[in-house]
Amino acid sequence: GVGEATVPPIVDFMRRLGLEESEWMPACGATYKSAIAFRDFHGGDEPKTWFPFESIEIFKGRPLNRYWLHKHFTDAAFADRFSFYDYCHFVPALCDAGRTVAAFPEAKYAYHFDAGRFGDFLKRFAVDEGVTHVVDTIESVERAPDGSIESLKRRSGEPLAADLFVDCSG
Q1: How far apart, in whole angstroms, are the C-alpha atoms of residue 36 and residue 39?
Q2: Does the annotation mark 33 as catalytic?
Q3: Which InterPro entries match (predicted)?
């Protein structure tokens, strides 16, 4: 299937569903994602720039980005040696070493997973929880006076009313 990259709010979403990483990640071919890697971001010799999900590190009560900005503009050797995120975060070093922040309490991370396997897993989970899964072609949407969806007119002819509709048409 297609690989999907996510952002940190999905971790909370999965926890709210009560799904354990040890259960769903192997079923979906998932891995942890601690940052986003931008290739050739600066167009120079730097092969990639990491954008961590974590906040800027603090040193002696001040964010490290202030130290980096000062050194970057006052010390040419420093500017050539340290990229912003490599200096201000521990995450790029972990990523370069093939490690993740997921083991750290309160860490911000996300996932990569197989989209097809993830969709199938969520469908099975939802059906097991009592959700009715319907596959049909929607001909039209019937709306209430306030604009909310009242029901869907399906190709099969049966109207479908529900409390929640999820459009998975892509």
Answers
A1: 10
A2: yes
A3: FAD/NAD-bd_sf, Flavin-dep_Halogenase_NPB, Flavin_halogenase
pTM of the model: 0.72
User: pLDDT digits over 17-59, tens only?
Assistant: 999 999 999 999 999 998 888 877 766 666 677 888 877 777 6
Cross-sheet strand order for the sheet of 149-154: 138-143, 149-154, 159-160
Catalytic residue of the set 33, 48, 60, 108: 33
Distance in angstroms (rounded) separating the CA atoms of residues 44 and 65? 22
| Burial environment of residue 118 by CB neighbours within 10 A (0 to 12, 13 to 18, 19 or more) | buried
Structure-derived torsion over alpha carbons of residues 70, 41, 1, 25, reported in degrees to the nearest 10? -10
Helix (H, G, I), strand (E, B) or coil at 34: coil
- DSSP alpha helix (H) spans, 36-90: 64-74, 76-81, 84-88
Structure token pair of residue 141: 């949407």
Let me know how many helices (H) and strands (E) the chain has, helices first: 7, 10
Q: Please report the pLDDT score of residue 61 as a whole number.
A: 77
